[in-house]
Amino acid sequence: MKKITIIGTGYVGLVTGAGLSDFGNYVTCVDTIKSKIELLNSGSIPIYEPGLKDLVKHNISEQRLNFTTDIKKAIKNSEVIFIAVGTPELQNGDADLSFIETVAEQIGENINGYKVICTKSTVPVGTGNIISKIIKSKSKNDISFDYVSNPEFLREGSAVKDFLWPDRVVIGASNKKSFSVMKNVYRPLYINEKPIIHTNIETAEMIKYAANSFLALKISYINEIANLCEEVGADVHQVANGMGKDGRISSKFLHPGPGFGGSCFPKDTRAFATLASKNNIKLHTVEASIKVNNQQKERMFLKLKKLLNNNISNKKIGILGIAFKPNTDDFRESSSITMIDSILNKNGIVNVYDPVISSAVKKKFPKVNCFDSWEECSKGTDAIVIMTEWNIFRGLDLKKLRSFMKTPIILDTRNIISTNKLYKNGFKYDNVGRNNIK
Ligand code: NAD
Fold first, then answer.
1. What is the CATH number for 256?
2. Residue 140, pLDDT score
3. Angle (deg, nearest 10), helices 98-110 and 127-138
4. Which of 118, 264, 370, 377 is catalytic?
5. Which of 29, 31, 40, 163 to mutate to test the pocket of ligand 1 (most atoms within 8 A of CB)?
6. Are residues 143 and 220 in the same domain?
7. Which of the residues 9, 21, 172, 363 could staple to 29 if both were Cys, CB 3.0 to 4.6 A apart?
8. Does residue 13 line the site of ligand 1, with CB under 6 A?
C-alpha cells in the first residue's frame, strides 16, 4: 500500500483521500485553507456529500487518513502525489491552470526522491507536459519522477459510491513502472476486475473532456426535444423512455430540466470547445450543447414570466432548491442562479429554501430571503419555482402549499409533481416537455 498525498481537499480531493485510504493506502490531504483543515481534523467535513463523513471518520480512526496545511512535509513523505486543485474558467473559456501551476512549483521545490505525480483535476490536453516541465525546472537535484493523468468521474451527490465502485479507472501513464504504481494504489478495484484503462497521458486527459461533453450533449438534446414536445402535444418522459430502452442510447442523462449546471459541465464544455478551436477544430456539437443550455436556463424564466402574465415586478417568488442537483451543497453555475438573477433584475422578490444551502446563498444574493423550510418559504408567494429535485419536494403537500400561497402558481422545472394533482388542486402550472392539461 502506498503513502499518498492529495493536494487540494475540495469535493474531489476529499473524496479521493477518503476513498484511497479506505483502499488501505496511507493518505495525507493538504489544503491552503486553514479553517477547512481544522474542521476536518476535528471530525467534521466542510461539504455535504452522503456517506463521506463516516468514511472520513473511519479512516482517521484506522490512522490511514490525516489532514494538514504543511504541503512541504506532505510532498516529502509521499510516494504518490495527487493534484486535485480547482481548474475554474478564465474569461476566454480556457481552464485557469494557475492553481495547478503553483502546486507543480511546490512539488518541484520539495521533491526528494522518485515519486509518481498524478493529476485528478480536469485539465486540457497537454497540461501534463506543462506540469512535468515546471516540476523539472524547480527541482534542484534532477530527481526522477513520473507523471500520470488519472481523471475523476465521480458525481457530486453519489461521490463516495462512484469512487469506491467506479465504472472504470482511466490511467494515462507513459511507462510500465508508473502504471504499476497506480494499479497498486487502486488495488482493491484491480482485484475486483474493475476496468483499469491504460492510455497515454494525452488520451486520458481527452477522455475526461469527451465524456463530460457527451453527457452535457445528451442533456441539451433531451431539453430541445422537450421544448418541441411542448409545441406538438407529446410527453418528453415517454419519449425519453422509448428512446432509452434502446441499449445503444440508454436512458441515463435523458432527463429534461432547467439546463445543466454545477462545477463541471458548464466550464468543461467551454474549455473543450476552446481547446478545439485553438487546434483549428470546431466542435459544433459541443458548442451547440452550450448554446442550448444557456437558452434553456433563460427559457425557464420566460415560463415563469408567462405564468405571471408578464409581470414580475414586486411579485414574491419562492424558489425551492438551489443546488445544481440533489444531495449536494454545490450550486456553482446552477440554473437556480440564472432564475434568481432574472427575477431580481425585474424587481421581483425572491424567497429561497434549499435543504442544505442557506448562508452561501445569502452571501451571493444579499437581497434574497432564505428560509429553513418550504412551508416558510412559500408563505405569501405569488408563485413557486422548483429548481432542484430534492426528495422532500417530490412529496409536497399541495393543499398545504396552496393554503400558504397568495396565488397558486407552480413552475416545476424538474417535472417531479404530478400534473394531475396540480390540476386537481387548482394550480396554474408549467413544467418541461410534458403533455400538460391546458
Ligand atoms: P474545489 O474548489 O472544491 O476544491 C479545490 C481545493 O483546492 C480547494 O479546497 C482549495 O483551497 C484547494 N487548493 C487550491 N490551491 C491549493 C494549493 N496550492 N495547495 C493546496 N490546496 C489548494 O474543487 P473540486 O470541485 O474538488 O474540483 C477539483 C478538480 O476536479 C477540478 O479540476 C474539477 O473540474 C475536477 N472534477 C470535479 C468534480 C466534481 O464533481 N466536483 C468531478 C470530477 C472532476
1. 1.10.1040.10
2. 84
3. 40
4. 264
5. 31
6. no
7. 9
8. yes
Which among 82, 79, 80 is positioned nearest to 30, based on CA atoms? 82
pLDDT at residue 335 greater than cutoff 90:
yes
C-alpha–C-alpha distance, residues 150 and 171, integer Å: 5
Residue whose Cα lies nearest atom 37 of ligand 1: it is: 12
pTM of the model: 0.95
pLDDT tens digits, 165-209: 999 999 999 999 999 999 999 999 999 999 999 999 999 999 999
**Residue type present at position 170:** V
CA of 29 to the centre of ligand 1 (A): 12
Query: Does the CB atom of residue 85 touch ligand 1 within 6 A?
Result: yes
Same domain, 24 and 173: yes
User: Could you read off the pLDDT of 280-307 as tens digits, one per residue?
Assistant: 999 999 999 999 999 999 999 999 999 9
| 264 is a catalytic site residue | yes
* Summary count for the chain: helices (H), strands (E): 19, 14
Average pLDDT over residues 44-58: 96
Question: CA 333, CA 325: separation in Å to the nearest integer?
Answer: 11
Considering the domain boundaries, does residue 70 fall inside one? yes
Residue 435 resides in a domain: no
pLDDT level of residue 436 (50, 70, 90 thresholds): low
Q: How far is the C-alpha of 16 from the C-alpha of 163, rounded, in Å?
A: 7
CA distance 424 to 411: 16
Bridge pairing between strands 409-412 and 80-83: unpaired
Which pLDDT score, from 0 to 100, does residue 141 have? Answer: 79
Q: Which domain holds residue 161?
A: 3-199
Query: Is 426 part of any domain?
Result: yes
- Does 96 share its domain with 187? yes
pLDDT band at 437, cuts 50/70/90?
A: low
Q: Do 45 and 177 sit in the same domain of this protein?
A: yes
- pLDDT band with cut points at 50, 70 and 90 for residue 358: confident
Alpha carbons 222 and 234: distance in angstroms, whole number: 13
Distance (Å) from CA 118 to ligand 1 centroid: 14
User: How much is the mean pLDDT over the chain?
Assistant: 96
360 in the same domain as 302: yes
3-state secondary structure of 272: helix
Are 104 and 192 contained in the same domain?
yes
Residues 272 and 365 in one domain: no
Residues 263-283: tens digit of each pLDDT = 999 999 999 999 999 999 999
Alpha-carbon torsion, ordered 350, 353, 354, 356, to 10 deg: 120
CA distance 233 to 271: 37
271 lines ligand 1 (CB under 6 A): no
Instruction: Tell which atom from ligand 1 comes closest to the C-alpha of 267.
Output: 34
